[in-house]
Amino acid sequence: MSGSREFSFRFTPPAVPIRFDESRCVGCNRCLEACMIDVMLPGEAGKHPVAAYPDECWYCGCCVMECPTGAISLHHPLMNQTRWVEKASLLKHREEET
Amino acid sequence: MTEQAKWPYPSRVEETTRLEADVLVLGGGIAGCMAAIAAAKRGQSVILVDKGAVRRSGAGGSGCDHWESAATNPCSKVTPEELLQAMLDDNDGYNNAISHYIECREGWDRLLDIEGMGGKIRDTEDEFAGADFRDEESKLLFAYDYVNRFTIRIWGTTFKPAMERECRRLGVRLVERVMVTSLLTEGGRNGGRCVGATGVHTRDGGFYVFSAKATVMALSRPARIWLFSSAHPGQCEFRPMSCIGDGHAMGWRAGAEFNMMEKSVRAEFSSAGRSFPPYSTGNNHNTWYPASLIDAEGREIPYADRDGDLLPDFAHRGRPAPGQKFFLKGGNIEQAKYEFDGPETLPYEKLKELGYKLPFYADLSAMPELERKVIWGMMVGQEGKTQVPVYRNFTQRGFDPERDVLQCYGVGWTSAEFLPQERQLFGLPGGFMNDWDLMTNLEGLFVGGDALFASNCYGHAAATGSYAGRKAAAYAGARTAAVLPWEPQIRAEMERVYAPLSGDSVNGVGWKELNEAIAKAMQNYCAEQKRDELLLSGVELLERYQREVVPHCYAANPHELMRLLEVFDILTVAQMILQACLARRQSCEKLEFYRTDGEGAMEPFICIRHDGEKVLRREVPLDYAGNIRENYEKYNQDYIAERAGEVEA
């Protein structure tokens, strides 16, 4: 990597709850209007809103429910993503032990 | 977006909009919508003010999966009186007999109203035909006690949009994105008649003055008193962050009386910290009752009845124990007394002795097919916060309930163990004191939903909201004109709410710093064990914040201003809680109130209010509601006649 890279300053978000698929978004702002917390601000005309206050999101999913084109995904912060396993793997483990 | 970015909405700061109606409803959640609908149906002009947008706002905006205490539904084998008595006995009387009787007696009526608006309450597609929890004739689905059938599974994601449409159809004027900041009283007098409210727009900063003949308080219960995360403020508590008890704070400032504010419980939910998002982990409570659990080696964890006797089969998880008429809830969430206790997996200590190994998992695969589907797909899917981030996302990531098992964290539904000083207002917390009209000591101010003392869930919010709306309509109907607000009170409030916009943009204190300081103070001075010296130190510290920090706070735009005004309200509520704790002199187990310096006899309800100078304490008997059924019927002849007419028609 060269040494002439340009840096920028930003406030590091603790998580990125709301992600927009630009190819699907029609810029209707229904997500923004549905949000009870008002975490989004209008973006450029015809484009998706800006998630201006992502830390205030309570992960209710209303923005996704209201989106007419499936352009939004919502993800719990990494620390809150819970784990599942195949049940068979637990039984196999027990068989091996006995 | 950087902090320097231009605000996308125009500024209307100090522009005042004045609106008047017969009935003013503060808060557009479940209770507020049902209040507005009830008042509008009785011919009153109605304004409903909401901090968000009514379609999806409030704690129930995104959904709900079960409706409790529908004792008058056609399949219920429990009467409203029996169910209420259980709720009172289970709490040694420290409960709101009036509001919960309204829930038990009218909840089913409200569910039918909501169905009429377009909400889905029945399995019309016969997806669950033949299930133990289904009534084949009415197509209603029940939860918990399948024999007595008073808790109904619902498709709650459909409810809030239906209520919003109904409000519009009835001509309710919806004022959205306006945060209510104060109550207006006749002549500006503390404790005087409520004549309206003020608000501030959360996008453009415009100022609102509402006046009305009657007002319904339908704002939420307080939150973020002890729990705060500046990284994830939206996940600090169970309810949305906009629900933080603004109503309690403005009520206290206006001289309203509060009950049970000394009650707080060790935290159960804070996915910003110790726990996980509700319903997203393996568990067998609430939405997930009666899921099967297995241990780390796949061994099924036994369920037992209240006597500790193992249940012979799955079906018994929905049945009362031998000799028990009905049970309140399965599981040991807010563990019911023996008389009302439902089935539960064996206690963890017992399981450890028997050799069961952590972690445990919820195992839907081992359950009867319809029981699996009603949890994964209906309940997890209709409960707010689960349809998208849990049901849809987990499914997309490959979770298959017939093959996979979901990990439990901790051993209860809270999915974590909290510290004693980490507290929440949960499990019937304190709120506005009410009479049989759900009116407060401020004449003309009625209360519904979470603003009431000892409130709990969706059905309670809908039933009490509607009741408050109809009482407000009757009160307004008997008055010729609204009393004009007192202008100096409006000017003072305008000055208060706008001050942070002119604060120091570089060194001013922001809302997060203040909220975090309040939460830490409350953890230090109002933890599980209380004593006067600690509480008084807390009072002193919070008074200092009020006096020295609040005037130096800063908000860059109307959104930040809303967040900051919320924290000012949190500060007010925290002060109220300290005063309520000082007012109760003896420990009280059912209020989870413990003093190390307790003195004197057990006390009844202790209500407090602020007269502008000092805090006033009043003892109220636990049975102040009197004979419940007689009094309900005395105060509701019009409603009883109205319903009888509807049934005949």
Contiguous uncertain segments of 5+ residues of chain A: none
> Largest interface, per-chain counts?
A-B, 46 and 59 residues
The CATH homologous superfamily name of the domain at 500-620 in chain B equals: Fumarate reductase/succinate dehydrogenase flavoprotein-like, C-terminal domain
Structural class of chain A: alpha+beta
CATH class of the domain at 18-78 in chain A: Alpha Beta
Q: Can you tell me the overall shape of chain B?
A: globular
Estimated radius of gyration of chain A: 20 Å
Give me the secondary-structure category of chain B.
alpha+beta
- Which architecture of the domain at 500-620 in chain B per CATH? Up-down Bundle
Note down, in words, how this protein is organized:
The complex is a heterodimer of chains A (98) and B (649). Chain A is an alpha+beta fold and 98 residues long. Chain A has a domain at 18-78: Alpha-Beta Plaits (2-Layer Sandwich), CATH 3.30.70. Chain A is 21% helix and 13% strand. Chain A contains three helices and five strands. Chain A has helices at residues 30-34, 62-66, 87-97; strands at 18-20, 40-41, 50-51, 72-74, 84-86. In chain A, the strands form two sheets. A two-stranded antiparallel ribbon of chain A has the order 1-4. The longest helix of chain A is centred in the last third of the chain and has 11 residues, at 87-97. Chain A starts with 17 loop residues before the first strand and ends with a helix. In chain A, 36% of the residues are buried. The model of chain A has no long low-confidence stretch (mean pLDDT 92). Chain B has 649 residues and is an alpha+beta fold. Chain B has a domain at 500-620: Up-down Bundle (Methane Monooxygenase Hydroxylase, Chain G, domain 1). Chain B is 31% helix and 14% strand. In chain B, strands 1, 2, 6, 7, 8, 9 and 19 form a seven-stranded mixed β-sheet that branches. In chain B, strands 18-10-22-23 form a four-stranded antiparallel β-sheet. A three-stranded antiparallel β-sheet of chain B has the order 3-5-4, with no helix packed on it. In chain B, helix 1 (30-41) runs parallel beside helix 10 (458-477), helix 5 (246-254) packs across helix 14 and helix 12 (511-525) packs parallel to helix 14 (558-583). Chain B is globular. The termini of chain B are far apart. At the A-B interface, helix 2, strand 5 and helix 3 of A face helix 9, strand 16 and helix 14 of B.
